[in-house]
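Aim 2 progress update. The chain analyzed this quarter is reproduced below.
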Amino acid sequence: QVQLVESGGGSVQAGGSLRLSCSGFGATVWYRMGWFRKRPGKPREGVAAIRLTGGSTHYADFVKGRFTISEDHSKNTLVLEMNSLKPEDTAMYYCAADSRDYGSDSSSLWESRYGHWGQGTQVTVSS
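Predicted structure tokens:
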């Protein structure tokens, strides 16, 4: 069974950094992995994604240049490096994965592309 688990969330001051990790991928051959977030009163939105077949990445405009998504092969984990955090980044952050090979890079930030989800980790950024 696949049970994705996020870690690394917490409370930081604006301008600070956090490193989120996601584990529990098992032996499944994944095609795409991503990070999403949900703020109160707003739908879950894509943050960053990585296509494992080529390592290409895609980022939402609101995090481009500040966040970096990567896969740590030695630990079989998905990582999201978050820098220059802003109060509007406050949200529950979720990792997701899918083994299906379809869609474009732009669609990699659509939650409908993913079939496996973690329970989320809270990130709070204060001004």
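The radius of gyration is 14 Å. The mean pLDDT is 94. These observations will guide the mutagenesis experiments scheduled for the next reporting period.
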